[in-house]
């Protein structure tokens, strides 16, 4: 969870709080954030138990709390304005948030450039904020993929597949022959596997270099179908 003590709806609802209840470094309410910290700690423990129980499954945990806290503490680092708790879309009032005029209402107004804001409407973050969070999510995938061995992806886009491919260990994919699977193209081709990508075929022998046509074709594939696996 994000630090709810920094969320404009919470700040507006408890606007009459004593000054001692605010974090001087962030302007956020301390008690709600302490509750979220406890929740996130229990969530991390639960995720670790699931990982131990299912070692062949990649379970990705994204730390929203620390990401949002960092954005609140250092908004300029992420291209956000200094009044970082002010929402982009809302009504008149402190933080541009109004319980009676929510984003989407006729009387609501929006900021000129959402990419300079952390919060979109007080409840949701902006696309710019989610972009930075997603980068960390991808880094977590890369880190955990080394322990899993390889990852299966369904409906991955070109950029994500290109980003992940150098970090995925080559694997033998005989068991995927004839099956439709979101397995990365490099693993297939590296092991001499014939794969079908976006209606085309590519094949290389053991240790051979990827031919450009097959590589480009597999990069843009949404799913990779293994047609024939190399013999053991």
Architecture overview:
This protein is of the alpha+beta class and 232 residues long. The protein contains seven helices and six strands, in the order H-H-H-E-E-H-H-E-H-E-E-H-E. A four-stranded antiparallel beta sheet has the order 3-6-4-5. The longest helix has 24 residues, at 30-53. The chain is globular, with a radius of gyration of 23 Å. Mean pLDDT is 72; it is low at 146-157 and 167-232. Pfam families: Lipase_GDSL. Keywords: Glycoprotein. GO terms for molecular function: hydrolase activity, acting on ester bonds.
Can you give me a brief rundown of this structure?
By secondary structure, the protein is α+β, with helices and mostly antiparallel strands.
Describe the secondary-structure layout.
Layout: H1 8-13, H2 30-53, H3 64-73, E1 89-90, E2 109-110, H4 127-148, H5 158-164, E3 180-181, H6 185-190, E4 194-197, E5 200-202, H7 212-219, E6 224-228
Antiparallel strand pairs: 1-2, 3-6, 4-5, 4-6
